[in-house]
């Protein structure tokens, strides 16, 4: 099982990467969506691997639900602010960081629960 400190460092590292990606690519159509999805999949895969868990049903459901939330949140922020230079980029980055944190911690908790049940 991954320690809470290691999970903290991993999740915050990916959240920072998400923020940078979202800020840099928010005005390029679909570029940030593809990059952020790849980064999120990598984060979840690392958390699951470090937990010693597999992709169980609970983990897959948690990941799918948060991916949908991330997509909706980022799309709302992007379409609401994307034409305002810098402000739109910042709004997209902040939204992406917050959702990445939620996805990471939900995945960690799902893995922890799955490990405790085993």
What does this structure look like?
The protein contains four helices and no strands. The protein has helices spanning 4-25, 31-51, 57-81, 87-117. By secondary structure, it is an all-alpha fold.
How many individual helices? 4
- β-strand number: 0
User: H/E order of the elements?
Assistant: HHHH
Portion of residues in beta strands equals under 5%
Give me a quick take on this structure:
The protein has 118 residues and is mainly α. It contains four helices and no strands. The model has no long low-confidence stretch (mean pLDDT 81).
Layout of helices and strands:
Layout (H helix, E strand, L loop, with lengths): L3 H22 L5 H21 L5 H25 L5 H31 L1
Keywords:
118 residues; single chain; mainly alpha; 4 helices
